[in-house]
Amino acid sequence: MFVCFQRAALRIANREENLNFFVENGATIEIHKLIQAKRVSLARTRLPPLPQKPKCAGMLTLLLHENSLREFPGQFFEYMPGLQVLWLRETGISGLPESISGLRNLRGLFLDNCSCLAVLPHQIGDLQSLKILVVRHTGISSLPSEIGRLGNLKCLRVSFKEDATVGNNFTVNSGNFNQNGIEERIIPRKIIEKLSKLEELSIDVSPNSRRWNANADEIAREITIFKGLTHLHFYFPQMESFEHFIQNSKSWKPNGENEEFEGFRSFNISVGQQGNSSASDFNVFECSAEKHLKFSAGDGFPGAVSEVLKQATSFELIGHVTAGNLTDGLPDDTFEELEVCIVEECDAMTSIVNGNTNTTGVVFPCLEKLHIKKLPNLVSIWEGTVASESFSALSTLTLKECQGITKLFSLELVRKLCKLQNLQVEDCARIEKIIEAESIVESTAFPSLKNFQLCSLTSLSSICDASLECPSLERILIKTCEGLTTLPRVLQKAPKLREIQCAEDWWHQQEWPSNETEKQFRTFHRHFR
């Protein structure tokens, strides 16, 4: 969605035809060209000194991103009344000059990745026409109260410098205190609620930010009154605050809580204290999902979580205290739209799906990626009967550090995974077998599997007791699986196989049906030390 806002900002400034451009790549800036130009790009250059007070009354667009700019002359913007787009991304500026107050027609201001920028000037409130403000990945620790004067703002994207910490203890950061020695709020009280025309709000904070955790509930109540909000990135540390928002938001349910869902075309919502959970090694944002929910340290699944899950296309469940699986106690249609699912550090979880209690039986019909990590009591991915169409779209499955599971797939589940392309199993000390099947597996098993990785499975003795046909398999990686010696027999039918990565000593431990077979497989062998 943000890309659309960027394009809109440029369209605002480029409505007229045949406007001249001014692109400076030389050592000096020719003032007469600068004065005449409508659209100016000084981006990605070794920038020469800027003129002190250029009279550019007709300038509409000024692009200064990704260059060596460190400071503006104090009166630089004084004679640019028509400027509509100012792009300063990835510059070294530490502040904006007071003359920015003269940009009364500015529509878009982009300050992302300006790491030296420590504060926004009070004059920011004079930009009454501003519709897009981006201040992400900078050095600022709070917003000025003057932000509340930007009544025409439609898109606000902001992130804050993290609180300084030593170990698990917060330390004093002088940038967080005002001149009276009082710690500043990360966003002043009753400021966000004044931005009534917001359509996109993105507030990116560290989950360990003490200042955000202290004020998040109030800010959440302020955005509840917005009627036109369709894109939200927000962290709710407390479940009560999240439930209040979902129940009362005029954007989430614009026609009342009993009406059908209409709002939010995209969201990235995090709920719950995230504590000291380790960062996931699976980046959900590499996927295309635009509706993301992260639920941390939960106990049960409150109605608000279930309601958002019905709209979500990606879901992270981290550190849940009581969940034995993902499906018990939730409506059958909860996961119908889900494309990506991450489940980590849920100590009580014994299976991902309990097919014995699911009413319709069909679960995760659209799920494409499933990442499972650190579930110490996990016994199976699916318990009970596997209904048709469940997991039918799954293309990537990752299982890591689950020390209780001994067998990964039942034969019944394997038959459903017709689109699985990537399978990675790692650091599961008790796993003995990948597929639990005593008879010959059908040739349709794993017809789409391309990449197969097995790492640090110290108890693994067999992939399957039967021979597998893997018509799409291209790459195998085996590491620290000393007990696995039957790979050649299991994977004899893999016509597209091009690479087998493994240690040389493991290779020699394999039970080759014949010297000819070993010679054929060696063509694909890539060993590591």
Automatic annotation (TrEMBL):
Gene3D superfamilies: Ribonuclease Inhibitor (3.80.10.10). Residues 117-240 form the Disease resistance R13L4/SHOC-2-like LRR domain. Residues 381-487 form the Disease resistance protein At4g27190-like leucine-rich repeats domain. Keywords: Plant defense, Repeat. SUPFAM superfamilies: L domain-like. InterPro entries: At4g27190-like_LRR, Leu-rich_rpt, LRR_dom_sf, LRR_R13L4/SHOC2-like, Plant_NBS-LRR. This is Uncharacterized protein LOC111307001.
